[in-house]
Amino acid sequence: MTPSADSHPGAGASTAAEALHASTVPEPGEHRHVGLGAIAGAAGVSKATASRALRHPDTVSPGSLAKVRRALAILGVDSGSHDTPSRQMVALVRPAAPAGNVDPYGRLFDLLTSKVFAQGIAAVHVEAAAYRADALAESLLGPAGSDPHVQAAIVLGGGAAGELAAKLAERNLPQIRVSNARHEDGISRIVLDATDGIATAVQHLVHLGHRRIGLAVLRDSAAAVRIAGFRKSMAQVLHIPATRDQAPVVEAAGGTMAGVAAAEELLHLQCSAVIACAPSLSFGILEAAARARLDVPRDLSLLTVGDMPDADVIAPPLSQVSYDWEAIAVSALNEVRAMMANPGEAAAIDYSMTPDLVLRASAVPPQRR
Questions:
Q1: Structural element, H or E, at residue 64
Q2: What pLDDT is attached to residue 6?
Q3: What gap in Å lies between CA 196 and CA 212, rounded to an integer?
Q4: What is residue 178's three-state secondary structure?
Q5: What's the rounded mean pLDDT across residues 36-40?
Q6: How far apart are CA 175 and CA 189, in angstroms?
Q7: Which residues are paired to 273 by β-bridges?
Q8: DSSP-assigned beta bridge partners for residue 217
Q9: CB 294 within 8 A of CB 273
Q10: Does the predicted TM-score (pTM) go above 0.85?
Q11: What is 104-173 written as a DSSP string?
Q12: Contact at 8 Å (CB) between 40 and 64?
């Protein structure tokens, strides 16, 4: 867990548990069990900044002061600043993106961070990794029977983030999940309905004249739903049985090279257009097309479902089916604040967000293939 609102993936400081066992000798004015180095590390600031924040808070920037106070709260240290009411803290959780992968929730994560701080609430960044759910849950919740260090959580994505969400739910922490799949876990959620997005992509490509359309999808918990939605849309729009041969699908692991392999397979199957369901797959398809000396979109049309960073400046600018991340961030924060205000009375919510088609230059009528 990285208790910093402006941290980068993998660039975090010590966890609360590690900091609590730090052997640094405390300086005067600090908590006797936690040294200055541990506080600075947990806050992501220099020792000098941490020291000034503890002794002369008016001499440091509001951002640095907030980081230090947030670190003190996570470490269970009394800052001695009783004249200022303690700030509420919300954990923003997302799965750690493997090396080489593009984080599909990056833009939403940044929007949530700014909106949480705009409400006067501290945002605790958490990158959930496999086999770390127990440790992360303990750092956020503290010992059983005690008040949690954070008052709520907004959890993005599945996988390791979903495992952590289940641990937080065991302690009845107010939370909302934003993910691609719907699960019967009783947790409030906003579902990013990729099936509607895929249907929109199919309709657009068929309207352009494509009949041989392939789907590249990540091999995850949402894959089966996306594949079923793709084949259903192909059958309805083209009036065909949409068998595996007629509606080719490739499931790929994460990473650009997996996208390259998926694209090569779909190109071998003579697809004139490909729908990619992840940024890494889109980049892989562009790479595979370049290796095969194919021009996008003249030889192969490409349409991405989901958020694609800098889609408008890539060559060619990528058409995509994307979500209104601003509206999702506002909805998620409003819901979780309502849960924080009335934790015993808040009703569980479960609704879907449908993406919109953003047309650019990567999808055109078939020309050569």
A1: helix 62-75
A2: 40
A3: 20
A4: strand
A5: 84
A6: 9
A7: 213, 301
A8: 251
A9: no
A10: no
A11: TTHHHHHHHHHHHHHTT-EEEEEEE-TT-HHHHHHHHH-STTSPPSSSEEEEESSTHHHHHHHHHHHTT-
A12: no
